[in-house]
Structure to design on (1006 residues):
């Protein structure tokens, strides 16, 4: 290992510009003559639009134009597409209602965009928007899934009868029925996975411009995947060919999934730039983010686990309702299906699994992928269920998990829900976590806390996730409307430095550092001779972007492949110059060497020869050293691990402190341990946030009550302990870098560990269940209800 | 939100009813009220200067009376459209009951807010409206009782309306239900002025519903 190669904790090179205020975010971009857009949004969760009068607004000072859904419709602008087609049990395709850029005829959630004003300043645009007169006819809103599915409920979309998008299933129902008949014990649980707001620190923004002389559109936008936006917006919404569209995702201040999707504002701004023939800018206000950025989670589930007399899992039966909100966001349909139910085996050998998922339209903000996307919902369900089964059967919690784990010699392991796990060692992670957390010593800590009047609880969870999304053929067979490979180009310059163009996008992950480490190791050149470029469709050949912990597994593998192409070509050049056979040339530590001799050429000299080909195998090798590779993974990668949480609760006030958190994660090969640790920290913070603090709450009429940081609690440093994070890695088997992915593990494994710990503390007081977020008020009420013999709310 | 209450006024029902229909008495009793104009038998317009937190602003609220049943009570309803700030609408049922030599005024308010008003102000609206309603009834009762007792003190002797906003400064900020919630006001996105202004609009509308009863 070198100081800057794979395995080294290289400091993040991008932090110099981020920490000194020199980042280049979308809102930092200003174009000459730029105008500003202000979007008027619906204050109603569900209402018919009887009329919109924009005349006063259009005449207001500084206004260049006012546009509504009707204007876009008559201009032939299409609706926003959904990227994943799901089929229901009966084989019918999902309900896929129109998703207009600006509402037409009806608004379906608070925040639904209705009209846009373009003016010389944001203040003028906003003032003009005040003058738009909209006559709304409020309609009954369906806010919860129970309300949406009830007979006689209002219909969010005319075409979606009963508000159901699809009623999907996976697994072998009859095998599960047989397993339950043979069961010695059945454990049942009902769970809610709370809806979350993503809250990246940078709100969404867009700047669009149009050049009439060339017909070229450029859109700067806060995206995790610029090429995907170009494809979706060009092909489906604006009907513009890709060669006339440039999408730039510059520095992006966090995404957590919510910046994957193709949003209305991106198409709207691009279209507006063409209409007014001036650059147009829009920057979301924070309160606007709360009602227009896709939200996460929101499942209601019932699950049953069949066990034999020894606590071995025989069968699992799951029925989940997933709230999709008012419209289908880009990847929303895949999250509660293929990113969720395919993981229901967890790290266990459960032989029979059946899950059905009903996805539901409601008058709420659309729901889509958020850090973990489906996999946290799965881990939460399984690990709450397993914990309950352990309590009911009297089998110690960690022992019950151990008994059911897939063993290291069982790989590749085919689960009953489609996936084939490539490699792993789950008992090793469990052992490491038990040891590191001093699981065995907990009773003493609990007794000590009791002396201080505190209820101390310990909780454990295991998890598995599918990352490295995704083998395109598999994804395509399951309904994906895109390939999910990645590309990289290694452009070697004449003097030996290198610029890398990657289709992955970094918005906090540190790719400019980790990708450079891969290149430094592979090409044997100094770290500072490498530049990583990403995010601009005019620079980068193609890319599917960053989500699902896919960047290093898929994008990194494409990069390795492109580096190896450079080396292969370099060998041909070196063989010529060194007057040896190509087969005798070996590349190591940045040098081409004739095997068994001291004849060698450094990488830089080969690069120079490629661009100044005076002494060159010109008849068989082209000049230049610039290689592109595309990589489509053979399988998903499967990070897994074990998290253990300890909490202390003050039973008099319900206040809770997370006093200890141990995470043992198998993320495959670690490129940069410091960045891996940082990624786990961030994921844990968001997972603990979901468990204890966060929750999007709508009132009965569909108004978002948790619409600001006064009411929506994101975790702060004082809510979190010092984390004990270690990696316990089995090298990945599905990609050449042997990596697995780390961006989401923290958010996946932690919520059940936290809630299991809370329940461990409260069950002796008579509490039987608690839902996320387990706020002090909720904990206090649960304790109080248990004491007074009433059922907790 | 829903809010209900009752208030005993030391004056006969007919006097209370008359006072409730006297714009000048209402003007003096409503915290921060600059003017009240009857635009018809069933419509009034009130201009109010209100203060919530750091923001002080003037608003106009329009309300409509219905189901008038002198001197037993009426239904009063109003709607405010705040454009990008959202909307507020609601109503109040008001009943006057003879209670010995005094009158029991009972009210039930139902109000809904939408858009940014609900998103940002739901908690503040509640506290502000309650505080303003309490201030109103205290002052209204005082004025009406004094009149019934013989005309003194004259309406001019009650605290000047300009003093009213100061009262709302004393109202405690809403306490989040969950313990470790962040309580910072939003600093990014919508300006402080915008949302507080929104809150005040709604508070005034709700207040109007209660007050003009």
């Amino acid at each position: 290992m070198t100081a800057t190669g794979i395995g080294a904790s290289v400091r993040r090179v991008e932090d110099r510009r981020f920490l000194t205020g020199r980042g280049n975010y979308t809102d930092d971009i200003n174009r000459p003559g730029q105008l500003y857009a202000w979007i008027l949004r619906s204050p109603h969760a569900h209402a018919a639009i009887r009329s919109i009068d924009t005349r006063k607004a259009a005449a207001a000072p500084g206004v260049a134009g006012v546009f509504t859904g009707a204007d876009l419709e008559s201009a032939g602008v299409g609706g926003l597409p959904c990227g994943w087609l799901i089929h229901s049990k009966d084989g019918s395709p999902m309900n896929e209602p129109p998703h207009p850029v600006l509402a037409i005829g009806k608004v379906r959630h608070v925040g639904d965009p209705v009209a846009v004003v373009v003016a010389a300043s944001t203040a003028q645009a906003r003032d003009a928007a005040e003058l738009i007169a909209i006559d709304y006819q409020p309609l009954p809103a369906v806010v919860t899934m129970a309300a949406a599915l009830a007979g006689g409920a209002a219909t969010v979309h005319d075409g979606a009868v009963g508000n159901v998008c699809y009623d999907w299933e996976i697994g072998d129902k009859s095998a599960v029925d047989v397993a339950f008949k043979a069961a010695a014990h059945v454990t049942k649980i009902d769970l809610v996975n709370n809806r979350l707001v993503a809250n990246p620190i940078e709100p969404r923004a867009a700047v669009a411009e149009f050049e009439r002389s060339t017909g070229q559109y450029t859109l700067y936008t806060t995206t995790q995947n610029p090429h995907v936006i170009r494809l979706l917006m060009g092909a489906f919404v604006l009907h513009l060919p890709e060669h006339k569209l440039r999408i730039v995702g510059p520095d992006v201040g966090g995404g957590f999934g919510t910046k994957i999707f193709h949003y209305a504002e991106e198409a709207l701004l691009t279209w507006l730039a063409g209409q007014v023939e001036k650059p147009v800018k829009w920057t979301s206000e924070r309160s606007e983010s709360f009602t227009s950025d896709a939200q996460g989670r929101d499942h209601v589930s019932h699950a049953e686990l069949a066990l034999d007399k020894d606590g071995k899992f025989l069968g699992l039966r799951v029925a989940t309702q997933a709230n999709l909100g008012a419209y289908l966001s880009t990847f929303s349909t895949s999250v509660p299906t293929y990113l969720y139910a395919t993981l229901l085996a967890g790290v266990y050998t459960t032989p029979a699994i059946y899950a059905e998922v009903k996805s539901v339209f409601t008058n709420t903000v659309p729901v889509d992928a958020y850090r973990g996307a489906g996999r946290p919902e799965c881990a939460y369900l399984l690990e709450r269920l397993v914990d309950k089964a352990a309590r009911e059967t009297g089998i110690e919690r960690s022992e019950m998990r151990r008994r059911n784990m897939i063993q290291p010699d069982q790989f590749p392991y085919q689960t009953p829900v489609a996936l084939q796990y490539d490699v792993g060692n789950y008992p090793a992670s469990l052992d490491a976590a038990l040891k590191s957390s001093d699981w065995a010593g907990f009773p003493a800590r609990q007794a000590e806390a009791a002396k201080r009047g505190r209820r101390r609880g310990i909780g454990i969870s295991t998890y598995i996730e599918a990352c490295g999304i995704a083998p395109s053929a598999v994804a395509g067979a399951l309904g994906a409307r895109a390939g999910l490979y990645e590309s990289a180009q290694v452009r070697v310059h004449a003097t030996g430095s290198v610029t890398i163009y990657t289709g992955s996008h970094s918005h906090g992950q540190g790719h400019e550092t980790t990708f450079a480490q891969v290149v430094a190791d592979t090409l044997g050149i100094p770290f500072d001779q490498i530049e990583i470029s990403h995010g601009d469709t005019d620079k980068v050949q193609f890319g599917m972007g960053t989500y699902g912990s896919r960047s290093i597994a898929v994008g990194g593998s494409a990069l390795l492949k492109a580096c190896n192409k450079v080396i292969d070509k370099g060998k041909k050049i070196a063989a010529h110059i060194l007057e040896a056979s190509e087969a005798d040339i070996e590349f190591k530590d940045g040098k081409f060497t004739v095997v068994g001799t001291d004849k060698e050429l450094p990488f830089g000299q080969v690069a120079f020869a490629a661009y100044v080909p005076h002494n060159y195998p010109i008849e068989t090798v082209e000049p230049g050293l610039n290689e592109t590779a595309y990589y489509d993974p053979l399988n998903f990668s499967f990070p897994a691990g074990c998290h253990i949480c300890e909490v202390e609760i003050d039973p008099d006030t319900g206040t809770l402190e997370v006093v200890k958190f141990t995470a043992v994660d198998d993320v495959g090969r670690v490129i940069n341990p410091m960045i891996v640790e940082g990624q786990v920290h961030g994921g844990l913070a968001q997972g603990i946030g979901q468990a204890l603090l966060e929750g999007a709450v709508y009132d009965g009429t569909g108004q978002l009550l948790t619409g600001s940081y006064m009411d929506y609690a994101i975790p702060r440093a004082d809510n979190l302990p010092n984390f004990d994070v270690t990696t316990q890695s089995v090298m990945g088997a599905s990609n050449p870098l042997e990596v697995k992915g780390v961006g989401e593990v923290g958010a996946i494994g932690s919520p059940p560990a936290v809630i299991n710990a809370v329940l461990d503390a409260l069950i002796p007081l008579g509490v039987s269940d608690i839902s996320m977020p387990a706020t002090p008020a909720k904990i206090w009420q649960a304790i109080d209800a248990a004491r007074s013999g009433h059922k907790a709310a | 939100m829903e809010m209900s209450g009752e208030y005993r006024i030391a004056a006969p029902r007919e006097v209370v009813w008359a006072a409730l229909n006297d714009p000048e008495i209402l003007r003096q009793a409503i915290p921060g009220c600059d003017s009240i104009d009857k635009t018809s038998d069933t419509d009034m317009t009130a201009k109010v200067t209100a203060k919530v937190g750091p923001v002080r602003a003037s608003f106009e609220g329009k309300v409509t009376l219905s189901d008038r049943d002198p001197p037993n009570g009426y239904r009063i309803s109003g709607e405010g459209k705040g454009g990008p700030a959202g909307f507020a609408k609601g109503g109040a049922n008001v009943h006057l009951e003879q209670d010995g030599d005094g009158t029991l005024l009972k009210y039930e308010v139902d109000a809904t807010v939408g858009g940014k008003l609900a998103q940002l102000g739901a908690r503040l609206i509640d506290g502000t409206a309650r505080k303003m309603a309490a201030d109103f009834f205290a002052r209204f009762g005082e004025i009406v009782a004094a009149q019934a007792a013989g005309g003194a003190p004259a309406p001019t002797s009650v605290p000047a309306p300009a003093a009213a906003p100061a009262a709302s400064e004393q109202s405690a900020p809403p306490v989040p239900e969950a313990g470790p919630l962040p309580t910072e006001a939003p600093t990014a996105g919508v300006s402080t002025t915008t949302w507080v202004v929104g809150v005040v609009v709604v508070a005034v509308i709700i207040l109007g519903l209660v007050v003009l009863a």
Observations:
- Helices of chain B lie at 13-20, 23-29, 116-148, 164-169, 192-211.
- Chain B touches chain A through 30 residues (CB under 8 Å).
